[in-house]
Amino acid sequence: MTGFAIVAYAGDAKTALLKALDNARDGHFEKARELVKDSNKSIVDAHNEQTKLLSKEADGDDLDVTFIMVHGQDTLMTTMMLKDQVSYFIDEYERIAKIEAKLGINQ
Q1: What pLDDT does residue 24 have?
Q2: First-to-last CA distance in the chain?
Q3: Please, is 29 exposed, middle or buried when counting C-beta atoms within 10 Å of its C-beta (0-12, 13-18, 19+)?
Q4: Which residues are annotated as a binding site for Mg(2+)?
Q5: What's the number of domains the chain is made of?
C-alpha cells in the first residue's frame, strides 16, 4: 500500500504543477505559485511514505521490491524535478510579461 500512496501523492503534486504552468502561461502568477506550494505538500506526504519504507528496511525488515514501489519512486523523483522546472518557468513567464508590458505588447 505504501507504493500506491507514493504514486497517489506524487501524482497529485504533478497535477498541481502542470496546472501551475498553465496558470503562469496565462499570466496568473500568484495562482501559479500557490499551486507550486500546494504541490510541495503532496511531495512531502510522498516523501513521508518513502521514509516509512526506509525505516522498515533500516530496522532489518526484508522488503520485496514491487513494480508499484519502483513506479512510486520514479513518479516522486520526476515530480520533484518537474517542480524545479515549473518554478523556473513561472519566473520566466513573469519576466516576459513584464518586458512585454514595457514594450506595449499585448498578448
Answers
A1: 98
A2: 47
A3: middle
A4: 74
A5: 1
Per-residue pLDDT tens for 64-91? Answer: 888 888 899 999 999 999 999 999 999 9
Which residues line the annotated binding site? 74
| One-letter identity of residue 70 | V
CA distance 24 to 26: 5
**What is the average per-residue pLDDT within 15-30?**
98
- Known catalytic residues are 71
CA torsion through residues 35, 37, 39, 42, sign: negative
In single-letter form, the type of residue at position 52 comes to K
Predicted local distance difference test score (pLDDT) of residue 99: 96
Contact 10, 43 (CB under 8 A): yes
In sequence order, which ranges of 1-107 are alpha helices (DSSP H)?
2-25, 29-58, 67-103
Which CATH number is 79's domain given?
1.20.58.80
Provide the residue range defining the domain that includes 59: 2-103
Look at residue 107 and tell me whether its pLDDT is greater than 70.
no
The pLDDT score that the predictor gives to residue 64 is 81
